[in-house]
Structures are given as C-alpha cells and as structure tokens.
Design goal:
The protein has 251 residues and is α+β, with helices and mostly antiparallel strands. The chain has a single domain, classed as Sandwich (Jelly Rolls), CATH 2.60.120. It contains six helices and twelve strands. Strands 1-9-8-11-6-4 form a six-stranded mixed sheet. A six-stranded mixed sheet has the order 2-3-10-7-12-5, with helices on one face. Helix 3 packs across helix 4, helix 3 packs parallel to helix 6 and helix 4 runs antiparallel to helix 6. The longest helix is centred in the middle third of the chain and has 18 residues. The structure holds fe (ii) ion. Fe (ii) ion binds next to loops.
C-alpha cells in the first residue's frame, strides 16, 4: 500500500482530491473537472511496474529539463496496452459527461528536475484531461499553483489585459493562447508563475496517478524519474476554453 503525501500552501485553495483505488466507485466526481481540481489515485493494480522502470536503465535516463519523445522499448508494449485499457476505464468512469475525439500517450522515462511552473500548451484549444502514472520507485514530485480561475480572482485586471493581448496576437499566430503568454519569460511586468508563486507540493509514489486538466491547473515537475502520460482531447462541447473561463470569472 502506498500513500501520496501533500504539503499544502495556506494561500491556495485545497483543490486536490486524493483517493485510494478501493474507494474509487464511492466518490462523486461531479464538478472535479469543471472546477479544475486535481485528482490523485493511489494503489491501482497496474501489474509489476518495475518491468517498465527497468526497460530503460537509469544511466540512460539523462537529465532533461523538459519532456522529449522517447521510443518505447518493444518488450513493455503488452504491459503498456494493459495500462492504457485501465486509463481509458478511468476516463469513462471519472468523466461520464465528456467524449474524447483523440487520445495521446507519452512514455517519459527521463529524469526531470525543477521545470518551470506552467499551464500546458497543446495546439488543440479544447481541454484535455491528462493522467500521469509514476512508474519509478522514487516519488514523483509535482508542484501546483494557481488555476486559471484563481488567477482571475486574484489578478482580474491583468487577466483581462492578457486575454486582449492573446486575441491580438492570434491574428498573427493562430495557436497563441493564454498558456503560452503566461510563461514567465513572456511577461515583463507581471509574472504570476515565477519562483515567488505559492504552491502545493505533491509526492506521489510508484503506482499512483495524478489526473487534471493541465491547461487550467498550473504545475511543474519538481522531480521525477519516469512517468507514463495519457491525454484525452475533448470534442468541441467538452468544457470551457481558457478564455471562456476568464470571461465567466470576470463577468
Ligand atoms: Fe505540463
């Protein structure tokens, strides 16, 4: 049995839900997605994850500050297929009102250390609930800071200005979005996700999984040695876009 540990920050909402897999069917998931809460599930039976961990020796998992595509060793494909089926069962049970038009997976055996706090940027604009399974024996350490909603509550004028800026920049670059301008090197005068941002710190052990919409929950991998990620890209009716959340919060 493993347990995720969280160091909470007093100035942020406690918007992380930790549950044991044995209680998965008992929880009411209504609103978890819409409210940008993050879910952690401990003790799902994935089989022997050391098989996946050992497929790429530690000496080859060189340090990377960010994720890059790594080929999947053939011998672990049967195991990853079983995990993918479990992931899809999770999606169907956790988000009964949503449909995914596309699914992407990523095998991330590399060591990641202290990446910047950010919101994810995918080219597709719609929300994409994403799950990360820690397959390494060392806990994976995530930090989460403001959600888009929390930024709107705390910094309404700045967020209104940003939406206007994104709309202008999108005339030149169709993929421009709030995530891309909120990266700390893009903003000169106001940088809410820089090193002074408050954060909760989540230590999730081997076999635990975190699920959230990383376009609406700012996060950084503070330390991690191996994860398997799975994203469900929702169709056009699938949840609010970042700008729509801002409009809703500030209206
Ligand atoms: Fe990310």
């Amino acid at each position: 049995m493993v347990d995720t540990q969280i160091k909470w920050h007093k100035d942020l909402p406690h918007d992380i839900v930790v549950i044991d897999a044995s209680h998965l069917s008992d929880i009411d998931t209504t609103g978890i997605f819409e409210d940008s809460r993050l879910l952690v599930i401990d003790n799902i039976d994935w089989g022997d994850l050391d098989e996946i961990r050992a497929a790429v020796p530690l000496r080859e998992r060189e340090f990377k500050t960010s994720f890059t595509k790594t080929p999947i060793p053939k011998k672990i494909i049967p195991h990853l297929r079983i995990i993918a089926r479990q992931f899809n069962d999770l999606f169907l049970s956790l988000y009964p009102n949503y449909w995914a038009t596309e699914v992407t997976s990523s095998f991330r055996p590399m060591i990641t250390n202290n990446e910047p706090m950010h919101f994810d940027t995918f080219e597709l604009p719609h929300p994409a609930p994403t799950a990360f399974l820690n397959f390494d024996t060392k806990p994976r350490i995530w930090r989460t800071s403001y959600t888009i909603q929390a930024l709107c509550e705390k910094f309404p004028a700045e967020m209104r200005g940003l939406v206007e800026r994104v709309e202008k920049e999108r005339q030149v670059n169709a993929h421009r979005n709030l995530s891309s301008v909120l990266r700390k090197n893009t903003l000169k005068d106001w940088s809410p996700l820089d090193s002074r941002a408050p954060y909760h710190e989540i230590h999730f052990p081997q076999g635990s999984v975190v699920i959230c919409n990383p376009k609406n929950v700012s996060h950084q991998i503070y330390y991690g040695r191996g994860a398997y990620g799975y994203s469900w890209h929702l169709d056009q009716g699938g949840g609010l876009l970042q700008e729509e959340i801002v409009d809703q919060c500030l209206s």
